[in-house]
Amino acid sequence: MRDFKATRAPEPNAKGLKLRVQLLFGLFLLLLGVAFGRAVQLQVFEQEKLRGMAQDQYVRQIEIPARRGDIFDRRGAPLAQSVEVDSIWVDPSMLPDVRQSARAMAKVLKMDAEELTARLTRAKRFAWVKRQAKPQEVAAVKDLGLPGLGFTKEPKRFYPQRELGAHVVGTVGLDGKGLEGLELAFEDELSGQNSRMSGFRDAKGRKLLVQGALDPLQRQGAAVTLTLDRHLQYVAEKSLAKAVEDAKGVAGMVVALDPKTGELLALANYPRFNPNTPESSSRAGMRNRAALDTFEPGSTLKPLVVATALDQKAITSESVFFCENGAWRVGRHTINDHGSHGWLAPRDILRTSSNICMAKMAQVLGREKMVAGYHAFGFAERTGLSLPGEGRGVIPFPKAEVSLATQSFGQGMTATAVQIAAGIGALANDGVLMRPYLVSKVVDPDGVVLLENRPTEVRRAVSAKVAREVVGMLESVVGKGGTATRAFMEEYRVAGKTGTAQKADPVARGYSDKRIGSFVGMVPAEDPRIVILVVVDEPKTDVYGGFVAAPAFKEIATAAMAHLAVPPSRTAAPGGVVAAASSAPAAAKPVAKATEPVRPVLVEADSESPDLGTVRVPDVQGAGGREAVVKLLAAALEPQVQGSGRVVSQTPAAGSLVEKGARVTLELAARQ
Which portions of this protein are annotated as coiled-coil regions (predicted)? Predict the structure, then answer.
């Protein structure tokens, strides 16, 4: 049998095997070279890039929000502060049942369950449950024992005075940014600078702080100090609310300022709102009407026209005008008075608030001079209160005779409440207009003053003689036969003016049947310390400012005189006789009959000070702190207390002659 295997030619195995080995060796060598090259590339050329990518997986730059700066009143009482509160978040991927967990959290937090469920469903690893939660809410969520919950501290804005000054201070949003008022106007200064610091995160994505806590001052905003006085602000808001509610009005405003400095001591609005719960108020309800809104003032501007006419020598205090017995035809229009009057001098024109005689006075004064007079008193220009959206007002040039007439008694033009108070304040300040201001100073955490406002003269509106003359005329407005007898004060001389303005109807392009009742006055008239404007919008029980606004003025003025420690204009003399400071001797009067009640006799009050603007510092050495403060306030001085216990030294010394309102520093120490 033939063996085929023995006869088959041998295959070249050795040569092929050698070739395959060489190919495999070359392939492995190539792969090793590629791996080595890749390693070199990663370790040498891309080292920094890869290190950064690795750190991004476990290191995070954590942003620490800055603590918002505080807002204070003039005496250091806090109006707005920031506190650290807990915000609740969750990792939805760690929840066993997102829908059930959301319902449980919504129940204890009193939130909408469906909205929370939708929010957690959309998120993967992080979702806010509730920002700036209350302590009891945080405790309730912790008690649920849900996995993936987290709590982080965030600054929350808190307003300790609640509604007090809310329209001025404003509000912030959930992100801590200012939305209204000074919170918005000083956003950059109050917000401060957010800080960033490195931190690890674990496998579950939780942040672990690896650096020490930052200095709180490094992440705190500047502090803002206002000119507002918390006590006067409270009285103003309380009196305004009562006035508007009694008159069944829709809104109201109060402006109280120091005519000598321009400082706004109170700026009140009605309706009020609580900035701690801004969601319960409308955006319109948060609006600071007193500083931002413009309206037609009405008769409160008549004193300014009279002062301008006297200063321009267009009239004298003895000039008389015929008031047409209550009705006067000007072109196609008829101007009416509230009563029937004949010939009246400027004093009686203001006392009776005659529109007709004011219109005739404007004709004598002339268009250009009347408009220039309004501008001199600060109208049609912003006062610069640092509030966004502050109103400017307009004074159209009165081309028509009826426009000249209406502008003479404050119609056909617009102004803000602050402008009106500042204009009347110029009369109270001997004719010098002061720039009204609301912010006293802004100081950053390390004590650097970023902004400081000081009393600033804008211009002289009228001469001092004319200003004092018009103020004397305005005293008759609150006297017998005047339009504001309800503003009369027993112990202080008051000068003021009522206003009852028609409200414009922009749709009908005319005037509606709605009114604005107002009263602006200064007290004490012989040396005004405060100017107060009260405005009631759309009163329904009575439309006249002397009825709806004057009583609120009296309440605020009474509290202000006590708070500012202003000596009375009228004091009680021995035997119950009323003593009054008067610039002119009383005219002789017939002796009263025996059957008639004897009326108090007005005599000039004695003054211990050589000058009306100065007082002597009382001796409070050894007195207790509270007793010393009361004595200084009663002497119209401002106490500054250092230490506690009893007074061991005072500066200036007892008996020194100083200006009213001067600061007296008291050093107190406890008995050894």
Answer: none
Please choose, from the candidates 567, 569, 576, the residue with its C-alpha nearest in 3D space to the C-alpha of residue 600: 576
Average the pLDDT over 92-117 and give the result: 86
Q: Is 158 helix (H, G, I), strand (E, B) or coil?
A: strand
d(CA 77, CA 89): 35
Whether cis (ω within 30° of 0) applies to the bond prior to 12 is no
Q: How far apart are the first and last CA of the chain?
A: 140
Q: How confident is the model at residue 300 (pLDDT cuts 50, 70, 90)?
A: very high
Q: Is the pLDDT of residue 584 over 50?
A: no
Burial class (CB in 10 A: 0-12, 13-18, 19+), 529: buried
Q: What is the pLDDT of residues 197-243, one digit of tens each?
A: 555 555 555 554 444 444 544 568 899 999 999 999 999 999 999 99
Least confident piece of the model among 106-115, 297-306, 492-501:
106-115
Residue range 486-515, pLDDT digits in tens: 999 999 999 999 999 999 887 777 788 899
Confidence of residue 124 (pLDDT cuts 50, 70, 90): confident
Helices (H) and strands (E) in the chain, counts: 21, 28
Q: What beta strand segments (E) does 396-475 contain?
A: 432-434, 439-443, 449-452, 457-460
Give the residue carrying structure tokens 């001052």: 217
Amino acid at 538: E
Contacts of 56 (CB under 8 A, 6+ apart): none
What pLDDT shows up at residue 65? 66
pLDDT for residue 55: 58
Structure tokens at 182: 């000074």
Identify any residues that bridge with 201 across adjacent strands, giving them in sequence order.
207
Nearest to 237 by CA among 277, 195, 265, 201: 265
Give just the sign of the alpha carbon dihedral 409, 415, 417, 421. Answer: negative
Higher-confidence residue: 594 or 41?
41
Instruction: State residue 613's pLDDT score.
Output: 60
Half-sphere CA count of 378, side-chain side, radius 13 A:
28
C-alpha span between 398 and 359 (Å, rounded): 12
State phi, psi for 69 to the nearest 5 degrees: -65, 155
Query: Cα dist. 49→42, 53, 54 in Å?
Result: 9, 6, 9
Looking at this protein, which amino acid is placed at residue 667? E
Residue 557's identity, in one-letter code, is A
Residue owning tokens 């329904």: 540
- Residue 146 CB partners (closer than 8 Å, separation 6+): 90, 95, 101, 104, 105
The pLDDT, as a whole number, for residue 151 is 84
Q: For residue 349, what pLDDT is reported?
A: 96
Q: How far is CA 551 from CA 36, 546, 569, in A?
A: 94, 8, 19
Cα–Cα distance measured from residue 657 to residue 672, given in angstroms and rounded to the nearest whole number: 33
Report CA-CA distances (Å) from 220 to 187, 210, 378, 399: 13, 22, 38, 56
Among residues 424, 396, 403, 463, the alpha carbon closest in space to that of 304 is found at 424
What pairing do the DSSP bridges indicate for beta strands 510-523 and 530-537?
antiparallel
User: Residue 539 in contact with residue 247, Cβ under 8 Å?
Assistant: yes
For residue 7, what are the contacts with CB-CB under 8 A and spacing of at least 6?
none
